[in-house]
Amino acid sequence: MKFLYNPPLIIKKIFRDFRWNTSNGKILLTFDDGPNPGTTEVILKKLSEEKIKALFFCVGDNVQKYPNLVRDILSEGHSVGNHTYNHKILSTLTKEEKDFQISSVNNLFAENFSISLKYFRPSHGKFQLSTSSLMKKHQLKNVMWSLLTYDYKNDLSIVKFAVEKYLKPDSIIVLHDSNKSKNIISDSISFIADEVEKRNYQFGEAEECLN
Ligand SMILES: [Zn+2]
Fold this sequence. Notes:
By secondary structure, the chain is α/β, with parallel strands linked by helices.
């Protein structure tokens, strides 16, 4: 399943064990697909300037390639989540392959960073009915979103449109830590931060937002 900007209520109701919005009325910024040299650094710098703590959904393959970037994310006080081992769409995989896509990333973080991951986001945002039981098995919360910015289209005007129209006090916002959004990621974060301030909304951290 794939969605425009804000997923329909009926889907949120059917998959009510997934997180679509924050539980505390604050805004949570999430970054998918990293870590990635050339964007992770830019994102971390901007988040530090704006004093925002975000949640990074990391791809296992990138975690192995760029452990220092993971260390940077963690040392800045951000949270991390599981975004599969190599961005495979779960519905196309066997049961064993699905388990590998999830458990390998959990293991990577446990062994290299002493972190027990709590959050998962499926690659391409695609999930199935069986995703719920898969989450239970691996003791993860599936974190979806209520605001997809389409930043990967690399067009700041699309991000601005999405944010102006769909930003809510309890939004979970998706951005990307990848080359696709490289040219606009910093401005996108600034735009969101300005909009949040203008509306008197507040950013929260993963732990409090996903309780
Ligand atoms: Zn992704």
